[in-house]
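Reading a protein record of the kind used here takes only a little practice. The record below shows the convention in full.

——
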Amino acid sequence: ISGAIVERMRFGAYLMFIVLWVLGVYAPVAHWVWGGGFLATAGALDFAGGAVVHVNAAAAALAAALVVGPRKDYGRHAMLPHNVPFTLLGAGLLWFGWFGFNAGSALAATPAAALAFVNTLLAPAATLAAWTLIDLARGGRVTAVGGATAIVVGLVVVTPAAGYIGPASALALGALGAVPSYFALILRARTKLDDSLDVVAAHGVGGATGAILTGVFADAAWSGGPSGLLGGHPGQVLIQAYSVLAVLAYSAAGTFVILKVMSLFMALRISKRVEGVGLDVIEHGEEAYTGGDGAILVLPGDAAFARSRMDVVAVQEGGRL
């Protein structure tokens, strides 16, 4: 969720929001699917959280980004990753950790865990390959940042299906899952939605795609559970779509209500002047990147330093803040 509201939401407000969101939104949705709730009764399949985690969080991120609003410089300046090699490193670490995320959802060292482990390797690889082919087909360049995004999308897409499909289906699912998220990224860039980390396109669209495709590729021969469309049970696709819509609607509405109620009692967003200086300096007392001059630590008693930084920004902005 934080990826859609970075650089503009107050730290204290965010902490309070997350507590309320986990209790009021995430926990009920998890019960619906994994705790014997109405989606579980309906037969929804979600091995590791395609709907429970990714669609749920993406719907919340969308609502939060709309309520909090865009960064003050959004659309006026390029906001690119500051370190592309570190972006790739982060994607690799995510992929490594996702083996535990998906396989661990089996809750034991079982054949389902082994299957989820293998599928977590294959699906993102297929997504990366398909993403690259789309880039080339559209006449664009193949970028490292695009590759990192593709890996994350592939991981998200396979999450709901990891223990329910065979390896060949994982390759197909990963390749198919690249398409909706790829074009969702293009669509988002044409809107005023300031979704800094493309949570909606990667996690929302990816999670929804994976959940629905689980209803296509689920195979009782591999999982011992229900089969999907290709196994002669087309109704599973409708069940999966129903679960996605239910989670999407509840999470978006619940998040909107939580933030609006919070806004009656506290400010959600930092001021434009604080945003110009940076939350690192004003709210956390440090700077992560200082151009090689060394980290700047602002101690609690150094309010004058923070004020001077704010004054500099005000002058640079022509006093418009």
